[in-house]
Amino acid sequence: MKKSVLFFSMVIMGFMLSSCLESGDQSYTGVMQFSYVTMDNSGLIYARNEGGFITSESIRMLYPGNCYFLSYTWNSENGMTQSADGFNIFNVVLTDEPEPVPSTTLVMSDAPAEAGTPFYKFSSPYYSSDEYFGDFWAFSYQWKKKKGEEARVDFYKSSETTETPGEILIDVRLSKTGTPTETTETIENGIIAVNMSSLRNLLQTSGETETKNVPIRFRYYIEGGSEPIKSSAYAITIYTD
After folding, report:
1. Using DSSP, how many helices (H) and how many strands (E) does the chain show?
2. Burial level of 79, CB count in 10 A (0-12/13-18/19+)?
3. 3-state SS of 195-217?
4. Phi and psi (nearest 5°) for 61?
5. How many whole angstroms separate alpha carbon 152 and alpha carbon 174?
6. CA separation for the pair 225, 205 (Å, rounded)
7. Longest dimension (CA), the chain
8. What are the residues facing 117 on neighbouring strands?
9. How many CB atoms lie within 10 A of CB 189?
10. What confidence tens digit (pLDDT) does each residue in 44-97 have?
11. 0.85 cut: is pTM over it?
């Protein structure tokens, strides 16, 4: 699927409910929803997204621990399956092939000194502060591409401190790979999901029940600017003593 469609889906993804009041039936439609695939204690593979928990024959063939864009429908005739831990999972029908979301892992060290290639645009994250999405945070972005080039996006935990006590600063770097075969540049859309579980493991105290929100800011370069931009603060919720 074209990246421009994926970029657009980050804006329009939603969970739509239609209720056929006369018949009493209910139907749900998900369109290109960012979904995290996982598995319960009985081995049932299902996906978590903003609409809830869903599964199907096709979803059960996917790899747990990965993210996909899923389009699907559900109605009351499809029913639900109960997970091993007692959650209701909708039995859906996929309306398009699952689209893997490009992903990377947070590097737990400082970014290279070089600024790399600036982004043309860089979005706010689509995420859950807990582990609902398996600690994947998704971003859409735009960059200037020459034919033959590909983009690579990396995330680095900075050792710098900020004005806010306890705040985490993450540097985002865009680099180009491949050999350009033309000089003309076009604006290309991209999606990247970064796995933040290593940060949670660093911050979280095992076995505790009290929660705490840790602020996170992302720092990146935008074309035309000599200084990096710091994002708004977002929170990751951890257990602590």
Report:
1. 2, 18
2. exposed
3. ECHHHHHHHCCCCCCEEEEEEEE
4. -95, -5
5. 6
6. 39
7. 64
8. 174
9. 19
10. 999 999 989 999 999 999 999 999 999 999 998 999 999 998 889 999 999 999
11. yes
